[in-house]
């Protein structure tokens, strides 16, 4: 293992040794966190918080359980098998519409970072989403945010989500396998899958939300991405625990914001690097880094963009009528984290 990572582990051990005085103040010293496809750079702040020992520094042990996609991780939290959720902010709005409120308390991604990629054959004659009619489109999991981007793109071109067949292919090596065996003709993914597909000559990006311009083209405004959230009941009952989690995530965001791509890659364990190419990962991070939130705060404009997008492709949100968007998130924990610096 690389020297930098060994040093990080040593720091983690030291942080854990000094944690009891902090941990005794928390309502919960151990929590289970559900995430869908943590290998994606979409969840880099979460992984950095764990790898760099920031959770341990806050006196909290986080058991991270990885699911195939965001929709399944949401089910775990709503069903009670997990306490915390790392997923797209839009789930907070959707669950509010369903009467099962989730509160987002720290934003990790300010742009989705998703890319629609198609096979080179389709790319040669790309004519928008009509080129995918009748074809299999891969997403991390059916019902996930990657799936919803497909829906939004189809509806935006006067097509129906049923005009394509959605296939859950995960977010790791299985994505490359799906293209290699011809299971899908296109996919919406975050990096590293997007860049690895392109480098292998298996796909060509045609729609890109790794930056503000692409995000506004697809969603009509700044669309927030991954966020830390929990049931509103959990947040209300465990404010010190939520604050500890938020402090750790804010530290991770600051590390990402203040570090070069090479410095970020240096702390990642080898198993996080699909293909094991550190130089390739650094190049990916140059593209993806602008998508991460620099401060963890959610803006009203971003929340409104989410709601407006959901009204287009989510029947539950449309049917719910007016939704109290202020109840879907809070910036108070992030503001406190910055105030404590």
TrEMBL record:
It is found in: Periplasm. The keyword NADP does not apply. GO terms for biological process: alkanesulfonate transmembrane transport. Its main location: periplasm. Residues 1-23 form the signal peptide. Residues 43-257 form the SsuA/THI5-like domain. One of its GO terms (cellular component) is periplasmic space. InterPro entries: SsuA/THI5. Gene3D superfamilies: Periplasmic binding protein-like II. Keywords: Signal. Belongs to the bacterial solute-binding protein SsuA/TauA family. This is ABC transporter substrate-binding protein.
């Amino acid at each position: 293992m690389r020297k930098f990572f060994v040093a990080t582990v040593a720091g983690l051990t030291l942080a854990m040794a000094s944690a009891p005085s902090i941990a005794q103040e928390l309502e919960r010293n151990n929590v289970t966190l559900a995430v869908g496809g943590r290998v994606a750079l979409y969840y880099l702040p979460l992984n950095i918080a764990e790898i760099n020992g920031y959770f341990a520094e806050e006196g909290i042990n986080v058991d991270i359980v990885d699911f195939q996609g965001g929709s399944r991780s949401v089910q775990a939290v709503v069903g009670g098998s997990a306490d915390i959720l790392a997923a797209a902010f839009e789930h907070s709005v959707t669950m509010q519409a369903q009467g099962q409120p989730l509160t987002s308390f720290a934003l990790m991604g300010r742009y989705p970072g998703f890319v629609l990629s198609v096979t080179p054959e389709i790319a040669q004659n790309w004519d928008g989403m009509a080129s995918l009619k009748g074809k299999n489109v891969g997403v991390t999991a059916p019902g996930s945010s990657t799936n919803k981007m497909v829906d939004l793109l189809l509806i935006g071109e006067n097509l129906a989500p049923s005009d394509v067949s959605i296939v859950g292919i995960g977010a790791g090596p299985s994505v490359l396998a799906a293209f290699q065996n011809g299971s899908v003709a296109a996919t919406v993914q975050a990096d590293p899958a997007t860049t690895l597909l392109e480098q292998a000559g298996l796909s060509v990006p045609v729609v890109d939300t790794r930056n503000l311009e692409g995000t506004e083209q697809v969603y009509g405004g700044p669309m927030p991405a991954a966020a830390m959230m929990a049931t509103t009941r959990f947040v209300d009952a465990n404010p010190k625990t939520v604050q500890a989690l938020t402090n750790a995530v804010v530290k991770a965001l600051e590390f990402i914001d203040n570090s070069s791509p090479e410095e970020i890659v240096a702390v990642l364990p080898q198993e996080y690097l699909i293909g094991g190419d550190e130089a390739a990962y650094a190049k990916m991070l140059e593209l993806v880094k602008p998508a991460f939130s620099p401060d963890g705060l959610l803006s009203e404009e971003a929340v409104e963009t989410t709601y407006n997008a959901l009204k287009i492709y989510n029947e539950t949100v449309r049917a719910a009528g007016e939704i109290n968007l202020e109840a879907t998130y809070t910036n108070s924990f992030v503001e406190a984290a910055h105030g404590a610096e």
